[in-house]
Amino acid sequence: MTATVDGLLPDARPSVLDRWSARVRASAVLRRRFDVLAPVFVTLLAAAVRLWDLGHPHALVFDETYYVKDAWSQWNLGYPTNWPEGADKGFASGGIPTFLTSGSFVVHPPLGKWLIGIGMWIFGPDSSVGWRIAAALFGTATVLVVYLLGKRLTGSTVFATVAGLLVAVDGVSIVLSRIALLDVFLTFFVALAFLFLVLDRTRHIDRLATLVRRRPDPAYGLGPLVWNRPWLVAAGAAAGAATAVKWSGLYALAAIGVYAVVSDAVARRRAGVALWTWGALRQAVASFLLLVPVALVVYVASWTGWLVSAGGYDRQASTNPWEALWIYHQAIYAFHVGLTTPHSYASPAWQWPLLIRPTSMYWHQDTLGQAGCTWASNCVQAISSIPNPLIWWAGCAAAVYLVVTLVLRRNWRHAVVLTGVACTYLPWLLYPERTIFQFYTVAMVPFTALALAFALREIAGAGARSIRRRLAGQRVVWVFLGVVVALSAFWYPVWVGMRVPYVFWLLHNWVPTWI
Questions:
Q1: Phi, psi angle pair for 110, to nearest 5°
Q2: Distance between CA atoms of 201 and 304, rounded to whole angstroms?
Q3: b or e along 185-222 (b: 16 or more beta carbons within 10 Å of the residue's beta carbon)?
Q4: Is the CB of residue 418 less than 8 Å from the CB of residue 452?
Q5: So what's the pLDDT on residue 222?
Q6: pTM for the structure as a whole
Q7: Please, which residues bridge with residue 500 across strands?
Q8: Which of 114, 215, 256, 398 has a CA positioned 20 to 30 A from the CA of residue 242?
Q9: What gap in Å lies between CA 237 and CA 476, rounded to an integer?
Q10: Residue 360: in which H helix or E strand, if any?
Q11: Rounded to whole angstroms, how far apart are CA atoms 130 and 128?
Q12: Element (H, E) at 379
């Protein structure tokens, strides 16, 4: 006799409401686990492809010939010095010569070289892992920053994971994370500054709206003057650190300042502030004082070693160290604006979206019969800074798409991403005669990846009512990401200098200008 018949025993079967509640709880648990595991996954993936066999090749690659030597002498003396002839061979063989004490003319600020120097101090100057470990760690951290930025922009773990994944497996990001150049440090600090900018925007607009509601009287026509903006100060510090790596960080600082002023003006207008224009101008002065001085302090602090020593280049140009520093900066500026030396891998900025001329960082060819070369043709080892072509071209197209949607929808999230793209790309168009390279685009990758993630979100049918539409869109996105990962696997050997058949290397040169 069942419980439902005789009514004497309670029904042991769960009700529909109980089953629904159990599913909700299980779904919530899975969602929390995914929120935790997703950033761990993309960060570990980034670390794996950047740290694997990091010491190969055990030779100074491309401009490592400048930065590794500068970093080691700066770490020891506080300023970069000249080196004796044959120093590069010494680094490759382990017999590193002693650096000279005469200051070397270095055209980039010191922070990036301090970071490279830390790794050399830990692992030793004769360790190629030591030369590159800082770049690898900062390149990996950039992936996590992009994930966090994507999460703050949308609140979506899936969106943030896609954006982080795109950076994790992109070629130019991998290559610049595996050699001791400065651009990966610049990229990290610029991305970090934009993360802080988004955090400031959310906090500032909420606080602004609250203060306006509390003071609706006409006397409050300008709106509140807000000084309590710690995230804006943090953004200034990060942008100052970017500038202390390379001067192009100044463009990020300026872009962040412009965005902060414009977003504040829009927020005041929407909040109903009567004299919102004048109120925004007043707040702009406060924002400048919160943003720029801290950036200047961070920048100048990076020059401490040069300031407190006596042997740095141009250090004796004046008895006043600040005047001497200014004279040195004038010399650096003159170098940059006059840099027109021909280079076989130079690529003006107008070529970058088309991916016409990636930079060959390293090339070595073995002959048949040499150790490890057992193929039927010669073996080569190559490191090319070419990005994943699908990520790059799709990311550029997605940036154009965001420009259109920004005009039509006024989406502040798109505005943040486009601000990042603009400050890392547009300034280079002003110098068509300068000797610049395709690998500078590594600073653009966090923002083109976010733009592409937004485009993929639209393709996946975010917000669409039709289940069929969402399923079809999601399948397209899954296929796209699968092809992206497959292409990265195909290109990985020529991003890290693996020994491969010459014919295999040729398969990666889709157009003649890639060779």
A1: -85, -20
A2: 33
A3: bbbbbbbbbbbbbbbbbebbbeebeeebeeeeeeebeb
A4: no
A5: 85
A6: 0.92
A7: 380
A8: 398
A9: 41
A10: strand 360-366
A11: 5
A12: strand 379-384
